[in-house]
Amino acid sequence: MVSKIVNLGLRALQFLWTLLILALVGNMIHDAISGNTSIVNYCMFVAVFSMLSLIYLIAATVNEGFAIHPLLMVGLDGLNMLLFLIGGIALAAQLRVHSCGNEAYIKSNKVTNGSNNPGKRCHEAQAVCAFLWFGFIAYAASMVFSFLQTRGGGANLRSGGIRRGGPTMSQV
């Protein structure tokens, strides 16, 4: 029961970070005057994929009857965790995080130099990078709780099925 409450709290945090990333990257794309780099588009993909998977994950966390397979939640958490990790690493590498007040930096960086207000775009990109890392941590923790929930729920995770032959512990 406690793990279910903690997992719901983590789902709320995942929704918050995903919503913030979606809003900031959407604003970056909207303000672009010369197109966007691939990392900006990838960050939007990560946010949309996370939001779509959260529809299922929140429902399956609230009611275990919605979980199609016990390991599907663990798999989706792991996939989202990996996507957020890749996005955080790639965006940080592209940004080469400097001060957004440095005119030479924001004019020469591919991510920040793409709008009429590159300083604003720089701040948005740095915030997206931070929120990607927060989302990664939330999905990593949620993956652990989802795995523990499948183990505690009596799900048979072994491929062997029912053990045949020999006495069981209760018969000894």
Structural descriptors:
single chain, 172 residues, mainly alpha
Care to describe what's here?
The chain has 172 residues and is mainly alpha-helical. The chain is 71% helix and 0% strand. The protein is built from five helices and no strands. Helix 1 packs antiparallel against helix 2, helix 1 runs antiparallel to helix 5 and helix 3 packs antiparallel against helix 5. The longest helix has 35 residues. It is elongated. The mean pLDDT is 88.
Task: Describe the protein's topology.
Blueprint: H1 2-31, H2 38-62, H3 70-95, H4 103-108, H5 118-152
Helix pairs in contact: 1-2, 1-5, 2-3, 3-5
Give the count of helical stretches.
Answer: 5
Summarize the amount of helix as a percent range.
over 70%
If you compute it from the alpha carbons, what radius of gyration comes out, rounded to the nearest whole angstrom? Answer: 21 Å
Overall mean pLDDT stands at: 88
Overall morphology: elongated
User: Quick one: how many beta strands?
Assistant: 0
Report the span from N to C terminus.
33 Å
Note the run of SSEs as H and E: HHHHH
The main pleated sheet reads as: none
Hey, roughly how much beta strand do the residues contain?
Answer: under 5%
Structural class determined from secondary elements: mainly alpha
Give me a quick take on this structure.
The chain is an all-alpha fold and 172 residues long. The chain has helices at residues 2-31, 38-62, 70-95, 103-108, 118-152. Helices cover 71% and strands 0% of the residues.
